[in-house]
C-alpha cells in the first residue's frame, strides 16, 4: 500500500524514471528481507526439528530407565520379602531357642556330652566345640563364603539385625574376639 501511494505520488510529479528506480530499489530491499526471513525461518524450523528429536530420544531413554528401575524395584521387593522371612525365622529361633534346638536334634546337650568326653581324654575342649557352642548362643548367621581373613555375617540382636564385616588386617584378633563375645547375651 505504501509503495502504491508513493508510485502514485511520483507519477503525478512527472519524475517517472526516478520513481521507477526508487521502486526497483525498494523492491530489491524487500526481496532481500524476504530471503533473509525465509532463511531464518528455515533455520528455526530445523532447530525445532532437531530439538524435538533430542527430546524424543531423552523421553525414550527415560521410559527405558523407568522400566529398568521398576524391574529392579520388583527384584528388591522380592529380596526384601525373602530377607523379612529369614529375619522372622531368625527371631523365632532367638525368642524360642528350645523349639529351635528341638528341631535341630539334641543340640547343646549333645555338645556338652562331647565336651565331657573330650575333657576326659585331653583336658581341654577342642576348637570345634567352642565354635559350635558359640554358634548356638551368638545369634549370628555366618557368611561362610567370605574370603580368608574376613569375618562376615548378620547378628540378630534384641532390636535389629546388624551386618558384620571385619578384616583381620584392620583389627587385631583380640579386638575381634572381644567384639564377637560382646554380642553374646549374658542371659543364656
From TrEMBL:
Would the keyword Cell cycle be found if you checked this record's keyword annotation?
A: yes
Example GO biological process = chromosome segregation
Does the keyword field hold Cell division?
A: yes
What are the UniProt keywords, alphabetically?
A: Cell cycle, Cell division, Centromere, Chromosome, Coiled coil, Kinetochore, Mitosis, Nucleus
Note the InterPro entries from the entry. Answer: Ndc80_Spc24
Superkingdom: Eukaryota
A single GO cellular-component term on record: Ndc80 complex
Entry's Gene Ontology molecular function annotations: microtubule binding
User: Where in the cell is the protein located?
Assistant: Nucleus; Chromosome, Centromere, Kinetochore
UniProt region (Disordered), positions on chain: 81-123
Stored Pfam families: Spc24
What protein family does this chain belong to?
Belongs to the SPC24 family.
Q: What does this protein do?
A: Acts as a component of the essential kinetochore-associated NDC80 complex, which is required for chromosome segregation and spindle checkpoint activity. Required for kinetochore integrity and the organization of stable microtubule binding sites in the outer plate of the kinetochore. The NDC80 complex synergistically enhances the affinity of the SKA1 complex for microtubules and may allow the NDC80 complex to track depolymerizing microtubules.
Q: How does it assemble?
A: Component of the NDC80 complex.
Per its record, how is this protein called by name? Answer: Kinetochore protein Spc24
Species annotation? Cnemophilus loriae
Gene encoding this chain? Answer: Spc24
